[in-house]
Amino acid sequence: MAALTPIYQKPFWLVALSVGAFGGFFGLVVGTANGNGLLGLVVGALLMIALAWGYLNLLKNEGNARGITLAIGAVAGFSLGGLPGGIIGAIFGAVGGWLIYWVHEGRYRAFLPPYLTWFQVLWHYGFRVICALIFIFLITPILVVLPLSFNAENFFTFTPEMLRFDPEGYSLKHYRDFFSNSDWQRSFKNSLIIAPIATIISVSLGTLAAIGLSQAHVPGRRAIMAILISPMIVPLIISATGMFFFYSQIGNWMEGTLGLDKTFVGYVKVILAHAVLGIPFVIITVTATLVGFDRSLTRAAANMGADPVTTFFRVQMPLILPGVISGGLFAFITSFDEVVVVLFVGSASQKTLPWQMFTGLREQISPTILAVATILVAISIVLLTTVELLRRRSERLRGMSPG
Amino acid sequence: MKFTKTLMATTALTMVAAAAGADDHMADELTIVSWGGAYSNSQQKAYHDPYMEKTGINIINDESSPEAVAKLRAMNEADNITWDVVDVVAADAIRLCDEGLAMEIDPDEHLADAPDGTSAEDDFGDLLVSDCFIPQIVYSTTAAYRPDLLPDGAPEPTSICAMFDTETYPGKRTLEKRPINNMEWALICDGVAKDDVYDVLATEEGQDQALAKLDTIKDDVIWWGAAAEPPQFLADGEVIMGTSYNGRWFSAIEEQDQPFEMLWDAQVFDLDGWIIPEGLPEDRLNRALDFIMFATDTQRLADQAAYISYGPARESSAPLVGKHAELGIEMGPHMPTAPENSENIFVYNYGFWADYRDDIDAKFQAWLAQ
To answer: Which string of DSSP letters, residue by residue, matches A326-358?
Structure first.
């Protein structure tokens, strides 16, 4: 992109202010870690200002200056915190060196419209910093789990070996435990049995309900909708208690009167309970998609002699499929993540992954949980990506999307 | 529509696969409830695996012992008992027995005699604290510390009162979030003689005295809810000392190589064992009784001690306790009942806590919230 605004050098006080704030913040973090936050803040700020002054007045060569800052950062970091400290220090130095010239030369204005006031420019960059901070806030707890799952010890702790990047400190043993431990395997299998079936039931019933409720002539559709969505609104623990007693009776009847196997009945109960929890998500997403559905298409299909079932499968369903799929995904995740209801309704033969993780956390605090969490995060990412790619592909084939 | 067909085919496939998967579990089953972690692991190896091999019955583990009382009440109300054998501490067994939720056991009929012919009743002796309770292990709640985190020059702690001495041992400590044991230790460290502890604790003033002593360290305490937390806190260096079950400390020190030291002083003995829920159908009851008969015989109880440092509840099992199954170290010296560990023990009073638990619990929780 070509520059929009001619740039010119800025006064030194502006450079001092920005790099001082940057150095001070970083100094505060390092200082707090080493026991004296205030000292770190002052030293960091003064160091950065002094460097900036030296480069701009004495050295006057940008390439050299940035190289020197990077080296200083790396050496200082290495002396304080070993290899990881050195890497963080080098990054800090690289950013610091770049920042000095970015501010001094006024490059930050280059790609912004020339008519912006200084406040608008400040907000332009401030907004991005805030966004980055929010992003870090959201993602850090998930990222922390990843390295800990490779811990060689049976505790949730960053050992000194791990912090030194010593291969001794890392191991795959928690992943091995997950794949070899029969408790984990059984619960993984249970989750893979329960979640898909519950999803299929939720999607079928939820889609039908959404289509029915979108017809204008259905009496009391708002009330029906409210009742169908209630499992999403009622606190889960309340639904779970109610379901426990309700499904206990149903289970006794199925075992006693129908003579079904106890384990099979257990699965049926958990699957039905999860389907109930998943239905509201499907109804909401499908209803939203139906808003954009052109009713005259069904009339046209009827006009050409198609019966309602054919119309549904060949006209309506393909058009509302994105809504159905995302509703299905929500229903799947609801069942796959669910721990409260299964604790009440299920018995130990139906122990699902979240249940196993819950007891594991309470009784053991084993990093196997982190390994499982990492695997689940990976599966979720793959699943969501695949579905999104498939959806785009089908839209493209249909010529629905411009991209 | 290709996609719709694919969808339906997938659906059908899932159903079939799931049904096939569910089929595997339809053999004879026994649902056993226990505590999870290293403890369940020791039961798995000493009882469950040999039993499954011997009988072909499939054992399913449910780690719900912490809420066993509440869940058994709910199951009883819903007439839907899904558990066959439940591992609980003695105090819970007494409660369940009083409420009629656990089945009464006749030691002579339901439990195996010792190999030398001693009757089961004599072999378990005083440990049969309730008619419904089949004792399994003797464990103790005791303290451990990190020598490397103690201040320079501080002597190694030798008494439980180090927990209350924040001047010599500054730093956080971790205690269980309940009054039991903590109140007793507080009184002992406040100068009450060991024999008088429960008499003092029965009075309002005595309870206030214990809470006042705990108040002196309140700011330095991290309260734990699950027994797995104290080893985690200590491994992290978040605390310098804490209390947990002796088996948890053993597992952290010997199996995980953590730099902890045990502080056996004033350890509190407690019992853990099996109960069978009241009202099981005939076939499941017979299976549960058969398992109990097998799992609590002399050899099996001694076997468990090869995986975890809890003392077997039968007198006849004690001589059979050998080496740790994987580490090969002698288990005897790690037992809470070993002479050098039990120089100063504190005897837990079931009757007292059965009577006073609700009152003191309420007081303790109110004090915690202050």
So the answer is: HHHHHHHHHHHH--HHHHHH--GGG--HHHHHH
Q: What is the largest CA-CA distance in chain B?
A: 84
Contact yes or no for B134/B296 (Cβ under 8 A):
yes
DSSP tag of A165: T
Beta strands B261-275 and B311-312 are unpaired
Q: Which residues of chain A have pLDDT under 70?
A: 1-3, 398-403
The verdict on a CB contact (< 8 Å) between A193 and B229 is: no
pLDDT of A255 reads 85
Distance CA B228, CA B194 (A): 29
Helix (H, G, I), strand (E, B) or coil at A334: helix
Boundary residue ending a domain (A115, A131, A152): A115
CA distance B165 to chain A (A): 26
Is the same domain home to B220 and B354? yes
* B19 vs B14: CA distance, rounded Å: 8
Q: Quick check: B27 contacting A, CB < 8 Å?
A: no
Query: What is the structure's pLDDT at B18?
Result: 54
Q: Decide if B205 touches A, using CB distance below 8 A.
A: no
CATH number at residue A277: 1.10.3720.10
Are B294 and B47 contacting, i.e. CB atoms less than 8 angstroms apart? yes
Q: What is the dihedral of CA B166, B168, B172, B173, to 10 degrees?
A: -90
A vs B, Cβ pairs < 8 A, gives 105
> Domain residues for B68?
27-139+271-334
B302: in domain: yes
| Closest partner CB to A364 (pick from B36, B61, B236) | B36
Q: For residue A396, is it within any domain?
A: no
Q: Are residues A90 and A198 in the same domain?
A: no
A358 inside domain? yes
Reported as a pLDDT band with limits 50, 70 and 90, residue B9 is: low
**Which DSSP symbol is given to A112?**
S
Compute the distance between CA of residue B120 and CA of residue B273 in angstroms, rounded to an integer: 15
pLDDT of residue A130: 95
List phi, psi (to 5°) of B102. -120, 150
Structural domain total, chain A: 2
Look at strands B221-224 and B241-245 and give their pairing. unpaired
Give the structural domain span for A230.
182-366
B:115-154 residues touching chain A, CB 8 A cutoff: none
Average pLDDT of chain B to the nearest whole number: 87
Share of chain B above pLDDT 70, in %: 93
User: B264 and B292 share a domain?
Assistant: no
Q: Does A351 touch chain B (CB under 8 A)?
A: yes
CA neighbor of A301 nearest in space, from A291, A316, A290: A316
Tell me if B47 is assigned to some domain: yes
A158 touches chain B (CB under 8 A): no
Paired with B312 in beta bridges are B137
CA distance B214 to chain A (A): 26
Q: Tell me whether residue A191 is in a domain.
A: yes
Residue A89 contacts B, CB cutoff 8 Å: no
Residue B17 lies in a domain: no
pTM for the whole thing? 0.77
With a cut of 70, say whether residue B21 has pLDDT above it: no
Asked, for residue B167, whether it belongs to a domain, the answer is yes
Q: Which residues of A touch B236 (CB under 8 A)?
A: 155-157
Question: How would you label B295-322 residue by residue, b for 16+ Cβ within 10 Å and e otherwise?
Answer: bbbbbbbbbbbbbbbbbbbbebbbebbe
DSSP state letters, B55-71: H-PEEEEE--GGGHHHH
Half-sphere exposure of A393 (CA within 13 A, CB side): 7
Statement to judge: residues A79 and A215 lie in one domain: no
Which residues does residue B87 pair with via DSSP β-bridges, in sequence order?
A: B274
pLDDT in tens, B305-357: 888 889 898 888 888 888 887 888 888 888 888 888 888 888 888 888 888 88
A222 and A341 co-located in one domain: yes
Strand partners, B138: B271, B311
